[in-house]
Amino acid sequence: xxxxxxxxxxxxxxxxxxxxxxxxxxxxxxxxxxxxxxxxxxxxxxxxxxxxxxxxxxxxxxxxxxxxxxxxxxxxxxxxxxxxxxxxxxxxxxxxxxxxxxxxxxxxxxxxxxxxxxxxxxxxxxxxxxxxxxxxxxxxxxxxxxxxxxxxxxxxxxxxxxxxxxxxxxxxxxxxxxxxxxxxxxxxxxxxxxxxxxxxxxxxxxxxxxxxxxxxxxxxxxxxxxxxxxxxxxxxxxxxxxxxxxxxxxxxxxxxxxxxxxxxxxxxxxxxxxxxxxxxxxxxxxxxxxxxxxxxxxxxxxxxxxxxxxxxxxxxxxxxxxxxxxxxxxxxxxxxxxxxxxxxxxxxxxxxxxxxxxxxxxxxxxxxxxxxxxxxxxxxxxxxxxxxxxxxxxxxxxxxxxxxxxxxxxxxxxxxxxxxxxxxxxxxxxxxxxxxxxxxxxxxxxxx
Length: 448
Hints:
Elements: E1 8-11, E2 20-26, H1 30-35, E3 49-56, E4 62-71, E5 82-88, H2 91-103, E6 107-108, H3 113-120, H4 126-136, H5 141-151, H6 154-178, H7 190-219, E7 221-226, H8 233-241, E8 259-264, E9 269-274, H9 284-299, E10 302-308, H10 315-323, E11 329-334, E12 348-349, H11 358-368, H12 384-405, H13 410-427, H14 436-441
Parallel strand pairs: 1-6, 7-9, 7-10, 10-11, 11-12
Antiparallel strand pairs: 1-2, 2-5, 3-4, 4-5, 8-9
Helix pairs in contact: 4-5, 6-7, 6-13, 7-12, 12-13
């Protein structure tokens, strides 16, 4: 906030050798400063225009031929005067232009500062600002879809619809109590309010459930590959990742530490961890690896237990089945290429060595996505801040429902609805001190 009036500059593209680099500038002095080092007069340049010319060092020496994309406040991403310099993508060229602009009095932008200015200038709300980061770092289709929805107006409109529904309930109560002579709003009864609050609570619970699932999908499902030594865990990890990430050997205890990787399975990602084989051992280093494996099992959201299908189950296999009995797991019967001796219901047969794992991938998809979610059309809030507000909203609406059913007066219960309404505003970063009475009376007829 201290430097919000500065004119800022930063590379908007990666600082690597490439065909084109983009240097972004924003602030009130954008045009006057760039004009000093550009070959054409741009002080009166109109917004939403492109202009070709040269950047020079102020002494007549050309640095690069560039194209300026010009934007005028408030019709820019940040809401300020803004220019994007499209220059040739050499690291040296990009650095020289940025250094030149800094010497003119611009300041290097902080991380996220362009988006921060867009938020402070009411060009985007907090949900949209957070969606920018989600879009950049999206690793699966579901995250991409929800980020696109949040970046545009879709998610904001759905939140506003929720807010409007809640405000309608609050308005009914307040007008009935404070303005009984106004007959354009339906009278509130305990029964009608209880029904309306419960319907709203059902909406919030569904949004929260689907949002929590989507957050797991966004971050990647923590998946542990476990089994006794030499059943093919590392071969399975390599097959899933399609690379030789883990060392494969017939020697038991080869994997002594955790080996990790990440794969994209369309709508979701897996954070894979190949664990050390779990068995009784006197080897102190192997014991450490086994302890780590058990800790990973405790935290995993999905477990793939690998067993050797060319042999019968052993005590070690049965011990592992007991260990994961209350977890979300899949049993993969491996080494089918050696001949199948193990007959066990509810398992997935694979050959990791032969890369025959398609049926396992389908089983993982079925196991992870157990709830049907429409990523294109649902309200999904997927970061910790947003979900924390959803928790509080659910808590307040639940409290209102409970007290209504216990016979508490509607005019006392409405305070919980007002808290939930303020929390919906906070999700978007709106001022929760918006005058509630003003919002209520906006809904009255003209002339009332």
